[in-house]
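Task: sequence in, structure out. Protein: FAA hydrolase family protein.
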Amino acid sequence: MRIARFTTGDDPRFGAVGQDESGETVLAVLEGDPLYRSIQLTGERLSLPDVRLLAPVIPRSKIIGVGRNYADHAAELGNEPPPEPLLFLKPNTSVIGPDEPIVLPEQSSDVHHEAELAVVIGRIAKTVPRDRVSDVIFGYTCANDVTARDLQKRDNQWARAKGFDTFCPLGPWIETDLDPADLAVRCRVNGDERQAGRTSQLIFDVATLVEYISAAFTLLPGDVILTGTPAGVGPIAAGDHVAVTVEGIGALTNPVVAAE
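Result:
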């Protein structure tokens, strides 16, 4: 099932994405937030073009990023692959949804795109063994771990470089029925392909990441894990359009604008 978060001008609501008899994409509106209650339909249906999609989840707690989790990406930045998952946190205020602008901060002159598969946690989870990991995952979505590369190097830590407002686009929806073992992850900027990898190339797979992270942090419903980015990261500029696609999920597109 694909779960979208959307608005028609009122408070955000959730819907199951599907097609009607004519093949038009529609949203079957849900009761409440499916992360915190069982999925129930209201009976209302809306056409996708009539709504504005929002980030499918706004983490109430945390976003956990995983650095250098593709060997080719580590190599392109002159780094060795880490011996264990390399973790960092992004604030929930960095989250935006489909078609919302990535704002380039005045503090940086070298902001990069990073296409990633994101994992959305569905229940409270602590010290989860890898054979139980699927029990705590609600679903998967596309992510762009936007990074101010110059600040990352200058600060010698990653909080500011990866934490600016708008630096965590998520969407377009959550796919709840997906095998993350071997999915294509791509990024296009203005239609030109920049990144093309597969989750089978992850140094630490999804099960390993959830097991490792939950041994350190209690994971809460709505927490998001960014699994890492393949090689090909590069700068984005005002006026660009960035599209992250993950096989089996869809495309997350965002324009890039300069700070006002």
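Helices lie at 71-76, 149-155, 159-163, 206-216.
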